[in-house]
Amino acid sequence: MALNKNKDLKMYYSISEVAKMFNVSETLLRFWEKEFPNIKPQKGGRGVRQYTKADLEQVKLVYHLVKERGMTLQGARDAIKHNTKGGINRNIEVIERLKEIRSELQAISKEMNEMV
C-alpha cells in the first residue's frame, strides 16, 4: 500500500484520510486501534483522531498482515510482537517496490504495443 507522496509534508491525517489511503472503513481503523496497541493516534479536541506518519506506518503494517497476507488478528499481533528486527517492514518495502516496478513495466509494455 503506497502512501500518497504529496501528503508526505502533512503532520497529521484525519481518520477519513487514512481510511481512503488504505481503502478501508473508519470503523475498521477504530477496531484495529482497539486490537493493536501499536496503533495509537493522538486525539485532539472532541476526541478527533490525528494520525502521524508513524501511525500510518503502523496501520500499513497491520493492513499488510491482515488484508494482504490474510493473517488472523492473533496471528498479526504475534507477528508484530516478534518483529524485533523490522523484517516485516522490510518485506512490505520490497513488495511495494516490486508493485511499482510492475506498474512501470506494464506502462512500457503498453507504449510499445501502441507503437506496433
What is shown here, in short?
The protein has 116 residues and is mainly α.
Structure description:
- The chain is 62% helix and 3% strand.
- Helix 3 (53-68) crosses helix 4.
- The chain is built from five helices and two strands.
- With 116 residues, the chain is mainly α.
- The chain has a domain at 5-84: Multidrug-efflux Transporter Regulator, Chain: A, Domain 2, CATH 1.10.1660.
Low-confidence stretches: none
Helix content: 55-70%
Shape, per Cα inertia axes: globular
The name CATH uses for the topology of the domain at 5-84 is Multidrug-efflux Transporter Regulator, Chain: A, Domain 2
Biggest sheet: strands side by side, in what order?
A: 1-2
* Helix vs. strand class: mainly alpha
Order of helices and strands: HHEEHHH
Rg over CA atoms: 17 Å
- Alpha-carbon distance between the two ends: 34 Å
Annotation field: number of helices: 5
Main beta sheet strand tally, sense and closure:
2 strands, antiparallel
> What is the overall pLDDT average?
84
CATH C-level of the domain at 5-84: Mainly Alpha
CATH architecture of the domain at 5-84: Orthogonal Bundle
- Strand fraction band? under 5%
What is the number of strand segments?
Answer: 2
